[in-house]
Amino acid sequence: MRDMVKGSNVSLAALSENIDSVIVSLGWGSPTGEGDADVSVLLLDADGKVRSDADFYFYNNPVAADGSVQLLGKTPTADGNEDRISFDLTAVSSEVDRIVLAASRYEGARFGELDCVRLALADGGGEELLNFAIDDADSVSAIIFGELYRRAEDWKFRAVGQGYDAGLAGLATDFGVDIDDDAAAQEVLDEAEGDGDDQVDLATDLAAEGPKPVSAPASVTASTSASATEPASASATESASVSASAGEPQPQETLAAVPSPRRPENEAQPGKAAARPRTAKKKVTLPKAARKTLAENESWRDARLFPASALKSDRERETRATSVLLSVMAQVPEFGRRLTAAFGAPAGRMETFTEVTLPHGDTPRRPDGVIRVERAGKLWTALVETKTNGSPLKAEQVQAYMDIAARRGYEAVITLSNDVALEGSPLVEVKIDKRRKHKVALWHLSWAEVAHQAQLLIRHEGVGNAAHAWLLQELLHYLRHENSGCHGFQNMGPAWVPVRNGIDDETLCQGDPRALEVVESWERLIRQVCLRLGGELGQKVLPVHRTRRGADPKALRGRLADQLCLDGRLQSELRIEGTPGVLAISADLRTGKLRTSIEIPAPEQGYPLSWAKRLVRRLAEAPADLHVETLVEGEAAGPRGTLERLRPEPADLLPKEPASQITGFRLSLLKGMGSTRGNAESGFIRSVDDAVHRFYTAVVVHLDGTTSRRTPSKDAAATG
Question: Cα(93)–Cα(240) distance, rounded to whole angstroms?
Answer without folding.
Answer: 28
